[in-house]
Design goal:
There is one protein chain. This protein is of the alpha+beta class. Helix content is 51%, strand content 15%. It contains seven helices and four strands; from the N terminus they run ααββααββααα. The strands form two sheets. Strands 1-2 form a two-stranded antiparallel ribbon. Strand 1 and strand 2 form a beta hairpin.
Length: 137
C-alpha cells in the first residue's frame, strides 16, 4: 500500500505541475462540472471535470483527488451516487480492471475484479493496467 500511495503521489504531482497552465485556463473561465461518486466504506466524494472534448483534459481535476488520497490511478470503477452503493473495497480510480472490460458492468462483476486486483496487486500490475488504458485510448 505504501508503494501504491507513493506512486499515486509522485505521478499526480508530476501531471498537476505539467498541466497547470491548462488547468488555470479552465478554472479562470469556470468551465467545470461536479459529480458525486461512491468510494470505499459506502462514503461519497465530489469529483470535478473540465468542460472539454478531450477526455484527458476533462479528467485533470481528478489528479487532486489522487494526490489527496481519495482516489487512485488504478482502482475500482467510479460509480455515481445516483446508482446503488456498490460497496467498493478499493478506492475508485481513473483506470482499473473493470475499466478495461466495459463501461457498464454489474456490481457483482466489479467485486470480482476488485478481489482479483487486491489479491494479485503489484507495482508491475499497476503499470500494465495503465499502459493498456493509455494505448486503448
Amino acid at each position: 500500500q505504501i508503494n501504491k500511495r507513493l506512486f499515486d503521489i509522485v505521478l499526480s504531482s508530476f501531471f498537476i505541475l505539467l498541466t497547470l497552465p491548462i488547468q488555470l485556463y479552465y478554472i479562470i473561465l469556470q468551465k467545470f462540472n461536479k459529480e458525486v461518486i461512491w468510494t470505499v466504506k459506502s462514503t461519497q466524494t465530489e469529483i470535478y471535470y473540465f468542460e472539454s472534448k478531450s477526455r484527458i483534459i476533462q479528467g485533470l481535476p481528478i489528479l487532486y483527488k489522487i494526490l489527496s488520497g481519495s482516489l487512485s490511478f488504478v482502482g475500482s470503477q467510479m460509480v455515481l451516487v445516483t446508482n446503488k452503493d456498490p460497496g467498493l473495497i478499493l478506492k475508485p480510480g481513473i483506470t482499473g480492471l473493470p475499466h478495461l472490460k466495459s463501461t457498464n458492468i454489474e456490481t457483482d462483476s466489479i467485486r470480482k475484479f476488485e478481489n482479483y486486483y487486491a489479491f494479485h496487486y503489484s507495482f508491475v500490475f499497476d503499470i500494465e493496467i495503465l499502459l493498456k488504458t493509455i494505448f486503448r485510448i
